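Hello,

Our lab assistant flagged a job as stuck in the queue for most of the afternoon. It eventually completed. Since we weren't sure the result was trustworthy after the delay, we are filing this so someone can double-check. Below is the sequence as submitted and the structure that was eventually returned. Let us know if re-running is recommended.
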Amino acid sequence: MTTTAMGLDKETRDIIKATVPVLQEHGEKITARFYQLMFENHPELKNIFNQTNQRKGNQSKALAGAVYAAAANIDNLEAILPNVKLISHKHKSLNIKPEHYPIVGKYLLLAIKDILGEAATDDIVVAWEKAYGVIADVFISIEKEMYEETKNTVGGWVDFRNFKVTKKVVESDVITSFYLEPADGNPFPVYQAGQYVTVKAEIEGETHNHLRQYSLSCAPGEGVYRISVKREDALGDNPAGVVSSFLHENLEEGSILPISAPSGEFVLDLEDSRALILMSGGVGLTPMMSMLETVIKEQPEREVIFIHAARSGRFHAMKTRVQEIAETKENVTSYTVYDSPEADEQCDKEGYIDSEWLEKILPTNDAAFYFCGPKGFMRAAYQNLKKSHVADADIHFEIFGPAEDITA
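-- returned structure --
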């Protein structure tokens, strides 16, 4: 993918680059206005976008980051390909189609005009229209390949497919697991440890369906998909999670849940045989459990260190299973960190994970590090690993929104 091949002339690229400082200053206002305009005119698209993230501003921030990155790299769009692929996995999981892109482009340009006012000259608007067309074509092309690959996989499907809940297991005070098998009884594809599915929640009384992405929490090839969902309770100004509450309260064994095929690039590299360090906070445990269950089957000799942080034992899901693995596999060690342990609770560390403690328990910094959890946890994990001189190539995580939220 080169800018020449994509047909953006130098004048257009120069105009786009000149708008980079404006995007830094007004990007989130532009994207917030974009969503407002688009949903007013296309309320059916509320089915696709997470309205909780809309309300919190996360979605606007993520889009602003993506637009800014594209503008800053307009001379060399290859630089943003890794991020394009990451977003394309999410788009594929949400079943974003080529026909959605012109709608997004239309309201993005209107939002730029609205927020920048007279500063949005005709030249700037035309340049952004051209640039958006080029960037949209890149996404459409990559996503087309992804859809075709999924469709051509044994048991693969595009859009949503009904799965039946075969088992419901309460894992902690706030996390419940749902075991899912295809309602049609036909084959379904194996996935890679770390991938996720999109759940379509069709909730009575809601004006639109809700889509949410949940990591698969068991090893591939077990004849079942499992998602482990944290119930998001009301807290301060934030209402209870619409979808997580629905799943916890309404889904029972035998219930039908439409899901998309597995997606995502945050996957365990089984070509690497070095020590594997898995770190999770809260419900970030879910992809880490899939990776742990996978590595003990696929690489039974590989050294694994599993570190989980939770508020206390009441919030610690799958503790018994991890203990069982650590007790029966000599090469697996597990550590528990509790922020506020209750009186009779045992843990390996009270408070938070810090670099000094990590350096005491980790055998080496020449290892593969994977982590997942709330943003604060992930930011601390990243900084702790950098303090320990872990190479960037050995640090693996996935985040909703700009990576700078973690790495800055």
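-- support follow-up --
The delay was a queue issue, not a problem with the job. The result is valid. The mean pLDDT is 91. Residues 122-151 form the longest helix (30 residues).
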